[in-house]
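step 3/5: co-fold with L-tyrosinamide
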Amino acid sequence: MQRTSLLDRMKFMATKNPSKPPAPYNQPARGDDSGSVVLERRTQKTKPPQMYQVVMLNDDYTPMEFVVVVIQEFFNKDRETATQIMLKIHLDGKAVCGIYSKDVAATKVDQVQEAAKQAGHPLQCVSEPVE
Ligand code: TYC
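step 4/5: write tokens
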């Protein structure tokens, strides 16, 4: 009995000849004319952007209520969360109010310092890279 080879059976099953797919972006394909494609493994090239945490500092003079409102207003926290953050600053000396891209974090610091200055309070906050 005549047995068909695996290759013959594969040809029979194929509806059309395989065409070479285009090389995907960031992952070049090495091909020859045999129709086979080898994908090279690459380590990831783009790192996620450095993020910055806005840390608010305690002082002895700024009213607690002012700090709570500032945290609600500029860091989009509800009153309960803002109160918890304010109390953490009061007890620990500082706390993170939010994590942002570099530009947004710098803007938050400016907004807080401008509001504190306008109100005549010494409230301070800083932006620092998240490790
Ligand atoms: N320690 C301040 C007080 O007792 C309250 C306060 C909390 C100030 C947080 C600053 O970032 C701050 N009135």
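step 5/5: annotate
Confidence is low (pLDDT under 50) at residues 9-31.
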